[in-house]
């Protein structure tokens, strides 16, 4: 049985890309102390939980998703003691912290991989997915080979410097002796090593993990059955030792992840969710042009929602380090309406740092640490109008990623003082969500319309709220609406004699 941490019921997460958040030692790279320094800012916004992208020792070929040492904070970010202090300071403020766990692969510089490359057998020989011949590559996966005396090819995830850890094959091919079962010694040792890593950081004060590509661990995995069983094994361990540790999966299939023991699952920006139909396509649904469509998203969401047995534990982020910024396709008014949707859906919402002020995608940047097209979404947080937008006192050329050079770039300080700003709207919406149990993580949802406007009903703890989201720049009317308007975004609405009139580029919430 999965034990649900109570704090997830009203959690609103803030995702922090540590490299680009706040630099306190003037080296051009954000650090752990910089996050601690800004906890009050995050708290004042209304977010009560944080997800920190990988902050462990790494050669940074993939921005930290290529881990060299799971037990050590990367020196450029600080020390383990700095991270423990961050946990403590967050807890003092009633906040919780998730670390980013990367269980599927390591860096080629990890000591496990260095040992696995040796020709003679040792305890790490089977820690990774190796074939038994340099001339044989793993089916359906890229590989690295010819790099050591060991005769074999090693499967990789994503980049060629990310060797795949071995959790076994759900159905090993009997003609390929190198394909190990989940119960073989190597895969079992890998799983126990994963538990040890989790045990270490949970004991240090972490509140749980966001798990990178959680559904990809077991190979040749029929309908995810092997990976589900693996995570059920982890859940059993957590229930015994850390029953209140929160687990959020990057899986994209909530029916599988929740059965596996996760509390929540992300809708991914790729695959069948149609998430990008809303925000990032040629005609986004949230564009005021009104040429987009939410229909396929709604149908996919309803299907996934049903598969979670009505738990609704599906996280919809504003964006993340792998996506274009919202502001690349939406203007400020459109983002207001988009946030009205994001912050009133079931599951915990996730706000990517800077999205609350409408930070832009920085165009035409040279790739930084494996970012490639994603680099433009990883620019430094814009805190104020001072030197380097308040991110760092280093020389501009030392910054991890160049800043948005626009003279009118948004910043947190200015928007915090402006009651009409996007940040103030986001803050108001978070507060609105927290004051109304129907709008929180576990409240029910029923879609009433998937066109323009998007209409859905949220229910919870005896409360019922109808949400009417109208991105299109056109006034519309809805008949037979009963109740009172309790919150509006954008250009407003009126409700008289059962007729709701909502203006274009607006959202309205009616308590029924």
Automatic annotation (TrEMBL):
InterPro entries from the UniProt entry: GH, GH13_cat_dom, O16G_dom_2
Record domain Glycosyl hydrolase family 13 catalytic: where: 15-433
GO molecular function, a single term: hydrolase activity
Keyword match Manganese: no
Transmembrane in keyword set: no
Keywords: Hydrolase
UniProt family annotation: Belongs to the glycosyl hydrolase 13 family.
Name of the protein: Glycoside Hydrolase Family 13 protein
Record organism: Ruminococcus bicirculans
